[in-house]
Amino acid sequence: MPGALDGIFVVTMEQAVAAPLASARLADAGARVVKLEREDGDFARGYDDFVQGQSTYFVWVNRGKESCRVDLKTPEDRAFVEAMVARADVFIQNFAPGAASRLGLGGAELRKRHRRLIVCEISGYAAGSPDHERKAYDLLLQAEVGLSAITGAEGSAPARVGVSLCDIATGEAAYAAILEALIRRGKTGEGSLIELSLFDTLADHMNVPYLTRRYGGFEPKRLGLAHPSICPYGVFALADGEIVISIQNEREWRILCAEALGDPDFAEDPRFSSNVQRVKNREACDARVQKALASRSRAEVTEALDRARIAYGLVSTVADLMAHRSATTLPVETPGGPAEVLAPPVVIEGKRRTLGPVPALGQHDAALRAEFAPLRAAGE
After folding, report:
1. 205 burial via Cβ count (<10 Å: 0-12, 13-18, 19+)
2. Are 9-205+327-379 and 233-314 equal in CATH topology?
3. Which fold, 9-205+327-379?
4. Domain range annotation of the chain
């Protein structure tokens, strides 16, 4: 099946994770993506060498792209890039604030020159904010927006979410905004200037704790593997492992008590008769659930929960994920050899997408310079 974005041409000046993830999603959907890199390449290429000698981060978010090295300090390469951008549908950049503009490749300038172009610019903090010029990286933003303050075990120090959540969320938001802009252009013929920041994206994800603090009047706490607003919804020890159990309504609560825990009177106790009451008495509620589960095996408990249609998740390691019966992997070619990645989540008409290869640094230099040389010469 042809990709939805077949025929769409994307040029990127990107590094790290957020912008590359957005353009990887576009490439997965069929767009042609040219990644412009410095002579020494996107610095994410050097984060590690675990995947056939390649970086885990780079393999994940740079499949299906063409790599071309450019030196934007030279007039020749600026003209070369401008020739590409003149034919592009989408231009994405996440360089330091002001860097693209100093090279004549800022979003406002490009939009004046190219009416149909969609420009997506990603920064650490929003343009016009007091912090716009500051450097900003994922871990720094997890701390600054307060995410680390509510992450980790109760009584522990603030903790990082175990993946680059800020970068990932911003990349997905950029992808969605670019798709919106393509739809808008299809209706109006006009491109768009899209601006996103890492801070704004992660701050938006903080709205529940923000509203809790602003209107509930108290600072949300770190709860480890427990939900701040629902009880029981947390981790419980079994005889041979750990499990997270989630109750979403009072009907499920009664079923859990009667059918899975074998304790129907539990649901009738006034301290636990509603979610609001259970949250207020979380320690006592969780202790009683734990007592009922402590001596039982994972197989026994999961069978009972499945039978009662109660949601749960096993507390797993990454090794467990590798062996998970529902995990799907897809092959991807890298400069060092074939690898497997966990599949993107979208399934269309029952089929997973084929993933394009990860480019070596400068792999497409000659081909791209030959392709765009006539355009460059014609514009001189």
Report:
1. middle
2. no
3. Rossmann fold (3.40.50)
4. 9-205+327-379, 233-314
Of the candidates 78, 91, 79, the residue with the CA atom closest to the CA atom of residue 117 = 91
Write down the residue that tokens 């509620």 correspond to.
285
- List the catalytic residues: 227
Spatial distance between the Cα atoms of 159 and 84, rounded to a whole number of angstroms: 43
> What confidence tens digit (pLDDT) does each residue in 38-81 have?
999 999 999 999 999 999 999 999 999 999 999 988 989 999 99
- In CATH terms, 233-314 corresponds, of 3.30.1540.10, 3.90.650.10, 1.10.10.10, 3.30.1490.20, to 3.30.1540.10
Query: Amino acid identity, residue 153?
Result: A
Residues of the chain with pLDDT under 50: 375-380
Structure tokens given for 109: 């300038």
Bridge partners for 37 per DSSP: 69
Task: Show the tokens assigned to 154.
Answer: 């109760």
Answer whether 16's CB lies under 8 Å from 43's CB.
yes
- Distances 185 to 22, 88, 110, 195 between C-alpha atoms, Å: 19, 13, 16, 17
